[in-house]
C-alpha cells in the first residue's frame, strides 16, 4: 500500500480547510489538503460570501455601533443552549481580524454597504462586490496555497482515520474518486506527523444521515447545498471516539423557492429584499404570520407550520434601496413582477381584499415604526409597500446548514465523549457542532470557518 507523510493533513478545501492549511503552513508545517471532489471549495464557493464582523471600519463609516459582545449576544440568543459560549465569544472577538484578513491579506473586494440579516441586532454582514459569492475568497485562498507550497489533492476521498496507540496518526484515502460512484478499493495512507484537521463541512445534502436526526428531512425537502455535502467523515470520526453534538439541529432556509432546484436565484430577492423590507403572507389567508426578520429557525418553522403555501412580497422601492440585481430570478419567473397589488393577488392566487388589508396594516406599522403584530424591527430603511411594480416569490424551506458536528474546544481540538481532546485530531467550520446551537445567524458561518480554521491549523502545526 502506498504511504506518504506530512506534518499536517487537512480534510476538505472550503473556507475552513483552506484557512487551516494556510495557518498551518505559516507555522512552518508541510501541509496536505485532501478534497474528494474534482474542484476545490465545497459549499463555500457557492455561498453568498456574506461575512459577519462586529466593529469594522465599514460599520463605523456608516455610523453603525457594534461590538463583539453584542455579536456574541445575538449568536447566543438565536442558538440557545446548544451554543458553547466560550466558542461563540472567540468567533465574535476574532471577527474583525478575520474580516481584515479576507480584505487585506486575501484582497477580497467588499461592498461598502453593510447589511442587516435576521436575528442580528445591527447591520454587520459584509459581502464581496458583484453578485453574492464565496468564490472571491476561495479563488484567492487556493492561489495562496499554491504560492506557499500547500499540496492540494483533488478527487481524494478520505475513508477512515488511522490511530497509533491513543493518537490519530493519519487517514486512509481513495484517490481517483468519482462523486456518486463507490470509492475505489485501492487506498493510499497519508500519515500526519503533527495533526489532522477535519474541515469536511456539513451534511445537509445527506438524506439518510440527516433523517437519523430529524425524521422530517426526507427526500421531499430540497437542499441549498452541493450534493457532496455528506456526512461520511463525521461517521468515521465517531468510529474513532469523537463526540458529536447538536446533530438534530439542521437549519432550513426560509427564503428559498420550490420553483427552482437547490439554492437558486430567488434568495437574492427573498433574503435581501422581501424579508427585511417586505412581508411574508399565506397564499390562502393573505395574512402575515411571523416577524420576517426573526432568525432563520423561527421563520422556517413558522412557514412549515402553515397549512398553506407562503409568498414573499416587496415593492420597487425596497428593491432599489437594496441595490441588488434580481434579473436572473425574474427571467426564470421564480420572482414575478406585477403593475399593482390587485394583479399580483389575482396571478398568485391570493385573496385580493385580504391582501390589500394586510399591506395597509403593515404600512401603518411602518409609519409608526412599530410592528404591533410581530415586532419586526422597523427602521428608517423600511418604507410602505406602495411603489409599483410589486414582486412576489413562493417560499418553501430547504436544508441549508447543519449546526451539529464534532465537539471541539477553544483550541479546535476534537473532543471524545468524556470531553477530553483526542490527540492529533482538530476540526473547524461546518463539520463542528456547538457554535451556532439551534440556529445559525446569516453570515456567521464564514466568520466561524475563518476564525476556527486559523486556530485549527495553528494548533495542529504546533502539536508535539
Ligand atoms: C448556497 C449557500 C449560501 C451560503 N451563503 C453563506 C453566506 O453568505 N455567509 C455565510 O456565513 N454562510 C453561508 N453559507 C454557509 C457556508 O457557506 C458554509 O457553512 C461554509 O461554506 C462551510 O465551509 P466548510 O469549509 O466548513 O465546508 P465546505 O465549504 O462545504 O467544504 C468541505 C469540503 O470537504 C470535502 N469533503 C467532505 N467529505 C470529504 C471526504 N470524505 N474526503 C475528502 N473531502 C471531503 C467536501 O467535498 C468539501 O469540498 C451558505 C451556504 C450555502 C449552501
Write a compact overview of the structure shown.
The protein is α+β, with helices and mostly antiparallel strands and 464 residues long. Helices cover 34% and strands 21% of the residues.
Low-pLDDT parts are none
Mean pLDDT over all positions = 97
Structural class comes to: alpha+beta
Q: Domains counted in the coordinates: how many?
A: 2
- Biggest sheet architecture: 8 strands, mixed
Quaternary organisation of the protein chains: single chain
As a whole number of angstroms, the C-alpha radius of gyration is 22 Å
The number of strands is 19
CATH superfamily of the largest domain, by name, is: FAD/NAD(P)-binding domain
Q: What is the highest CATH level, the class of the largest domain?
A: Alpha Beta
Instruction: Label the CATH architecture of the largest domain.
Output: 3-Layer(bba) Sandwich
Alpha-carbon distance between the two ends: 27 Å
Kindly state the percentage of residues in helix.
25-40%
Q: Could you say which small molecules are bound to this protein?
A: flavin-adenine dinucleotide
Sheet-strand content, in percent, reads 15-25%
Q: What is the overall shape?
A: elongated
Number of helices: 16
CATH topology of the largest domain: FAD/NAD(P)-binding domain
Structure explained in plain terms:
The protein starts with a strand and ends with a helix. It is 34% helix and 21% strand. With 464 residues, it is α+β, with helices and mostly antiparallel strands. The model has no long low-confidence stretch (mean pLDDT 97). α1 (15-26) packs parallel to α7, α6 (95-106) packs across α16 and α14 (341-348) crosses α15. The chain contains 16 helices and 19 strands. β18 and β19 (421-427) form a beta hairpin. The protein has helices at 15-26, 42-46, 57-61, 68-79, 85-93, 95-106, 135-147, 207-213, 232-239, 267-277, 296-305, 316-322, 327-331, 341-348, 352-368, 444-462; strands at 2-11, 31-34, 51-52, 110-115, 125-128, 151-153, 157-164, 167-174, 188-198, 244-245, 250-253, 279-282, 310-315, 336-338, 390-395, 398-402, 405-406, 413-415, 421-427. The protein folds into two domains: 1-252 and 399-464, FAD/NAD(P)-binding domain (3-Layer(bba) Sandwich); 255-396, Succinate dehydrogenase/fumarate reductase flavoprotein, catalytic domain (Flavocytochrome C3, Chain A, domain 1, Alpha-Beta Complex). The site of flavin-adenine dinucleotide has 41 residues, from α1, α2, β7, α9 and α16.
